[in-house]
Amino acid sequence: MTQRILVVDDEESIRFTFDAFLSDAGYRVDTAPSLQEALVLAGGTAYDTVFIDILLGRESGMELLRFVRERDPNCPVVMVTGAPDIATAAEAVRLGAFDYLTKPVHQDALLRIARRTLERKALLDEQETYRLRMAAVFQSIQEGILVFDEMFRVVDINESARRIMACDKEIVGKTLEELAQGDDCSAAHRFSEIVTQRCLGEIFHVQMVNAAGQSLLLSVTIAPLTSQAGRETGVVLVLRDEGQPSQLMNPGPG
Question: Per residue in 62-95, pLDDT tens?
Fold first, then answer.
């Protein structure tokens, strides 16, 4: 699919030049001479990169920068100006501009930054697609999943885990110690010993009563979250409801 670029500048010569350079490089280009026309285009079209002149007559390109970043945080925006200053550059960075071009803009510089922005957009879109796919898997599987950080704080919980333990999403952000002392999810304190022992890969059998008063027998496994540098950044607990609990079963490694 041809990548699509929006160029916004009140100078016709700039729009023509950007359009010619970018179109010759194989990109699909739309142009707008004013803030209002640009807002209409950006509001109805998904762009891969946007070039915005900071001064659009009496209007500011910063407003369009803010609009584009709010609508699609993955879309890189490059600000273009003939009179850069520190305050303007700082404001553009604060609003999320990818980079800054100073007029007159040469063809090689324009194409170089266009390639960088489009590569960035493609990478962010790929990461977003992967995240959404993983989130769908996370929420759809039958096993309950609890994700903890290195401080034993709950950072995520899927729907199956909430159903099994009869807990609310509000437990996210709380430590196992805080949960054990409160009423939000009394069942969670049964996992504290498992997480602390770090018997990775072993299956634990835990008999417990959840927040709805239901007696459960769970098989629980633990897996580390390890960074590329080899540092453990948290752990994941996987819960499986094994049905009716045995009267003789106690928490402990299986």
Answer: 999 999 999 999 999 999 987 766 667 777 878 8
Q: List, in order, residues 6 or more apart from 66 with CB less than 8 Å away.
A: 95
| CA gap 179, 148 in Å, rounded | 13
Give me the long-range contacts of 68-74 (CB less than 8 A, separation at least 24): 68/42, 69/95, 69/96, 71/42, 71/43, 72/46, 72/47, 74/121, 74/124, 74/125, 74/128
Residue 141 β-bridge partners = none
Q: Which domains does the chain have, with CATH numbers?
A: 4-133 (3.40.50.2300), 141-253 (3.30.450.20)
> In the 8-state DSSP scheme, what is residue 253?
E
pLDDT digits (tens, 9 = 90+) for 100-140: 888 889 999 999 999 999 999 999 999 999 888 888 888 88
